[in-house]
## 1
Amino acid sequence: MVDFIITKVLPYFDVVLENVKVTRLGQGHINQTFLVRWPAGQLVLQQINTDVFPRPAAMLNNAYKISRHLIAKSEANAYRLQVVAPERTQAGELFLDLGEQGFWRAINYLPFSHTVEVVNSVVEAEIAAKAFGHFAVSLSDLSAESIDDVIPQFHHLPGRIDQLVAAVAQSHPQRLQGCQQWVDLALGQTELLQQLKQVEAQLPLRICHNDTKINNMLFDKRDMSSLAIIDLDTCMKGYLMYDFGDMVRTFCSPEAEDSTALDQVHVREPIFAAICQGYLSELGASLSPLERQSLWLGAKVMCLMIGIRFLTDHLNGDVYFPVNHQGHNLERAANQFTLYQSLLEQQDHLSTYLK
């Protein structure tokens, strides 16, 4: 792959090929990401997964609109984070389409950037939540209608449940074996579905990040302050409760999302409190009362929904999320459902942080 990138992809970009080095970057599930360095420069190169993003040009146009908006805010001293922006090809395009050899794009690399995979402290949680809140409020004056839906119904729990039902019906018995308890849990959430339908109908559409994992916020390794929000690929119209919920899902457990130590998977109250403090300190004044109330619902829905997506992929034969071994997606699903159960057990107490 590295030789292919150097000989077939990089010549289309403003890269000096002499002494160039290409290394893999990050631990993303979907796209393949590489860091390209040469003596006088560096950039991040990605091969876009067009099975997941069937309209990659629309996705990159979204990212371009958002980055331009944030750059303008930054120049007006109204946005304090750095901005990840596209690096155009030599022909001035936002992407390179090589057909069967891949759909490629480049973005600027931010020096001193550092990612965290598991939140280790309330300080990390609050810094990241504050950054995601600042990102969201800074996009509040960019029309949500100006952004395309590159993955329609991405955060749509009823649709994800329908996909699970179909997967159960078509699954090989060996795949279904060992996960019936999780299927029953997922399909038994009718009350949550009814509540979600009622609340969503009253919420304003906003531009949301839609993938607010801790590793999509870059820390500055020099002082561990917030540096930038990255991975704008899933930025679409949506509801802020899902961005909040994905932070809860990915920040609050002391275990990685594929950990099989289920007895250690739980919502850490101090981390949850730090998320609320950081996020609301940026967005609190701009949230409607119902939006603020919806955040707790978003936390529950995201843990459940990602568990359903992992479980569905397991039953379908691991066709969406890359796996490292047999049963990997089932392990991820069990992890997320366990986190969901922890939220329910602490609901009366944790929800008070959002009052």
## 2
Amino acid sequence: MSLSREWRRLRELDWRALDVKESGAWPWSLQLFCCLLVLGLAFGGVHWYLAAPKVAGLVDAKHQERELMRDYRDKAAQAASLPVVRKQVAELEERISALREMLPTDAEIPALIDHISETAIGNQLEIDIIRLRSPVEQEFYIEQPFDIQVRGDYHRIAYFLAGVASLPRIVTQHDFTLEPTGDQGVLRLSMLAKTYRYRPPGGGDEAQ
């Protein structure tokens, strides 16, 4: 059967008169086209019903694989650096413990005030005021401020400040005011000093 004859049959075909029941009498090219169309639709339906969900599952699995590999690499890096981190934590804990030893407890505050007074007297200063203020609670420590006012010459006041800074307990010095008193060579030092007590995260003051 020649292609020209088949093409002529297609052109002369009355498409409106086609009947599926008589498909065996259709031109072979039309039959072939219909068979291919049915096979294509059947293949598309099977793919949509069976293969498409599996393809979507495969895409999800690959995404999860990438996520798991990234987590694995992160955790492997953390595991490799764990000994270094543990060493750093141990060093930090030692430093914190040493600093805590330098903080007075509530019961040691009066002794600290006595040491400051002795430092002033040892430098031949006259004490006007050493007076505690109300404590200020912070998250991990309690701040204990107190006012200091002493009189003496410039060099003795400087030695006094150095002595306070070198006390075994931490004392910080703030708001210095240095002014003449009217007496020859005598100055008045007024300042705010602060010491600190450790406060455990769970509650009140901790004895040392």
## 3
Amino acid sequence: MGKFSGRRALVTGAGSGIGRATALKLAEMGAEVFALSKTLANLESLKQECPSINIIPVNLENWTESREAVKKITPIHLLVNNAAYAEIAPFLEASPECFDKTFNVNVKAVMNISQVVAGDLVARQLRGSIVNVSSQAGHRALQDHTVYGSSKSALEMLTRSMGLELGPKGIRTNAVAPTVVKTPMALVGWSDPVKAAGMISKIPQGRFAEVEEVVNAIVFLLSDESDMVNGHSLPVDGGYLAA
């Protein structure tokens, strides 16, 4: 399980859900892991579960503070931009506050953290791999997901642009685009059994994704086994986007 021995990894939104599971998996596989979240209590429980993980309590909405926090831990060879914000509302009820917060976390913070990590790697002439956690909502419109889906669509283009510009410098960038994953965040939009059943009926495999299934895809894209994969988005959606 030492696939990432000697490498330093940063996972944002690591306090819960996909981010937490990814941080634990990377630590298990030998990486020196840094877990970033705005919720200190979540980070402390993660540290209790895996004492080798280094925790960074910072709010990604603060451009300067988060940038300075990441500069202090470079170099980072493996970056997982997992942190996200979701607020579900019909298009006609979407607020400017929701739009700003969603794009600040889901897009702007990804650019910010990735600039710090990638810029440092380039300066040191080191190779690296970045994975952005996107969503099927970035590929297909979903009811009441206008702002969230738009932010993930922007993240998909950011991923491709990063792959194009950073690839020649030895840094690969890819994304994973899951369907609904069984996390606390998913309950925001999918706690209604009728609504959930409607989505599940459109997934050929007939279920939502497990956290571990997304983590496995992230690990693959971080690893040397995917060395020729760059600027792409890997759906983890049970076939939803194939229909």
